[in-house]
Structures are given as structure tokens and as C-alpha cells.
Amino acid sequence: KYRGSALGVLWYLVNPLVMMGAYYLMFGVILPRQDLEHYPLFLLVGLVVWVFFNQAVMSAAPSLLDHGALVRKARFPREIIPASVVTVQLVTFVALLALVTPITVAIRGTVDAALLVLPFVLACLFAFVLGLAFAVSILHAYFRDVAPILSAALLPWFFLSPIFFEPDAIVTGHETALFVLEWVNPVAPYIDGVRDIVYGGQLPGPATLVYVAVVAALTLLGGRALFARLQGELAVVV
For residues 108 and 201, is the Cβ–Cβ distance under 8 A? Predict the structure, then answer.
């Protein structure tokens, strides 16, 4: 993708860093958060998770159409196409976390045992995104409005996810909103889980760990089943 550019794969770092700078200016300087230490890192960890989710799903949606010639001419498991898209984004995501985590560890001054749980949370996140990728890629192959609808939905979804704030900071009297932000939004527990470990140096709560595992399994199984059901005419529709 970035062959021939001066920065090469380092361009993958630009998006979350630019977003972090813009949102830190708004929420850390203009509307400062006094209750969170090292707010830029708080923001960055949430943004890194979101960027992986957003780019993986949006790249997967048109992936079958983008490789239509291959789908029509070769016999192979078509799931490989959206899976490869998600895997590429995963490599970038893990590389970003590998850069951010030592910084947060250095600031805390301790290497916490919670880091041992990080691979589990990341595996669940990958399975969740992969299941969504299977679903949106096969649906977009049949219904070309899926990707534009998804693009429109991701913007409000972004602002309703706990990237700029902690759900616990929501004022009393808005318990329904808190429940929706924490548990109805399926991305939120993954953001909270990764941030608890990388930024906070603490284990996610048991409810969060159960949630990310169950939702990952259901989404992966559901997305894979939908893909298998609809792929019969795939060579015709692409």
C-alpha cells in the first residue's frame, strides 16, 4: 500500500497519532479532563483499538468485490479474503500496542501481571472483528449499500464508544445511558479491557472478560455461518 513512500509502513502510525493530537487539544486543553492522569495515553490506547476495528471492518466490506476476478476463476476458501484483510490490520494494531505499552509501563514504573491477560483480550477482539468481517464482506457482495451504511454508522458509533471518557464518569441519574455505553455497544468492553491492562496496569473485571469472550465466539460463529450460507452464488454476484 505504501510502496515507494518516504515513511513506508510508518504511515500506519500517523492516523492514530494525528487523531490523538486533535482530540487531546479538544478534551485535554480546551475542555480539560482533571480526573485522568496522562490523558494523551488514555486517548491513544482507546484510539488504537478503535482504528483497528474501524479499518478492519471497512476494508473487509468491499474485499470480495475487490478480488472478484480471483473469486470467479479460482476455487479456494473465500473466507481467506476477508480474513487476510483483518490479519493485516491486526499486525499493525499489535505493532502500535507494542510501541505504546512500554511507555505506559515506564510511566507507571511497574510491569504488572495484568499484561499476561492481554493476549487473551486481543485474541477475543480479533475473533470479534473477524466475525464481523465475514458478515459485512458477504453481505456487501450481494447488497452494495452495506459499505456506505457501515461508513455512516461508524461515525456516531465512534463518539458513543468510551474513547474520550470512562463510562464510570457518567453522572448519577443516567444509569440507562451508562448501561448502553458499556454493554449494548459491543466494542466498548474491548476498549475498556485493553485500556485497563495497557493504560491502567490492572485486570479487567470478570464481567468484561466473560463479555469479550462470549461476544467474540458468537460473532465469529454467526459471521462464519452467514458467509457459508451465502457464498454459493458468490462467483456470480461479484
Answer: yes
pTM: 0.86
Q: How many CB atoms lie within 10 A of CB 208?
A: 19
Number of domains in the chain: 1
Spatial neighbors of 15 by CB under 8 A, at least 6 apart, are: 51
8: left (phi over 0), alpha (psi -120 to 50) or beta: left
For residue 114, how many other CB atoms are within 10 A of its CB? 16
Would you say 203 and 117 are in contact if contact means Cβ atoms under 8 Å apart?
A: yes
CB-based contact 179:207 (threshold 8 Å):
no
User: Which residue do the cell numbers 466490506 mark?
Assistant: 61
**Domain of 207, in residue numbers:** 45-237
167 within some domain:
yes
Class of residue 16 by CB neighbours under 10 A (exposed 0-12, middle 13-18, buried 19+): buried
Q: Divide the 238 residues of the chain into consecutive groups of 10 and give the mean pLDDT of each group.
A: 54 66 64 67 90 94 90 86 95 91 88 92 98 96 91 88 77 68 89 94 94 98 95 82
Residue 187 lies in a domain: yes
Backbone angles phi, psi at 112, to 5 degrees: -90, 150
Residue type, 50: W
